[in-house]
Predict the 3D structure of the following.
Amino acid sequence: MKAPTFELDTLHGRRAMVLENGAIRISTLTGGGHIGELRFLTGGKERTVNPMRVPHYPTIEPQEYDPEKHDSIYGDDPHRWISSGYMGHMLCFPAFGPPSSQEEINNKFGNHGEAPIVEWKQTAVGKSNDSVTLCYEAELPKTQYRVERTITIVNGESVVYVEESIENLAEFDRAMNWVQHATFGPPFAEPGKTFLDASVTKGKVGPGKFTLKANSAVEWPKGTSSAGKPVNLRGFQKQAKAGSYTALLHDQSREQSYFTMYHTDYPVLIGYLYPTADNPWLGDWQENHSMMHLPWNGEVIARGMEFGTTPFAEGLKKSVDRGSLYGVPAFRWIGGKQKLTTHFTIFLAEVEPGFKGVKDVRAEAGKIVVSRRDGKKILIDASLAK
């Protein structure tokens, strides 16, 4: 097998940094730093499906946004910068949700913070016969942070190892939100056919008109529909022209937390494994043709899994005002000039027709062990898994 490769390429018309290792291909965008593609390299179109959401409309490099040219395409609200360039897995930092004030909006501080709308630059590429590593970073001039990410893939493994750090360039301590927003889209995300499994225990539905009862309590996977009926939350809800958001608390007794997702018609399972201490919360956001504003226009289907420091996408100030939920903090502090580092692992596995889901995921002795609901196990080579 040839050594893993790195190349500069394009993904749906966007500048991309691409890694391959014979088993998988992963593409990251320079505009916003998003992971826009992760898929198997071989097999039919079902096996090589890209689970990540790719917008139905053309996207641009968000750092090149020009209101006079682009507001007519992407709208004129604070979400326009994100909408213009977002694809797949996004880093929400240093805020999760909308701006906290009109002043922030006036200063072009949009939804989900500064990290996903600036240019990320390649800083290093390391190659060997067995692995390839990409290092890339972004300066956040408005909020005075630096973010760095290192992505490694190993020959033949269907696993992506990600290390991520944030550095406070200011001399004072401050609050922040640090959330990974992995969004899946068609054809992999489909109401009634896409299912979630996760190491979560309980949670709360967000406010608003959703498929689920607003502000209702959740005992995973049991929830309550907007009509007051019991509903299983594993499945992407079927109600048309509707959406939902549920904040879920990971099992705090676990060192590592996980979520997995699969579509009943595709032979692909995608999963994430990450430290619980850094990511106590998992948000399950579902959108099924409900949002009518530009550029969504009632055409979006998506399911986003949002793991990190914060339960709700309500903005930094509101998360600080909330303080905690179930006694677990809703934001995180970073010290002056401090640098914090975390990691997460993404994996793909092949599953057969009739697959019923996942009971547990663990990293053990160079393997990711996926315990299935039917009692069987999937063993994935993962030489660098922590």
In short: The chain has a mean pLDDT of 97.
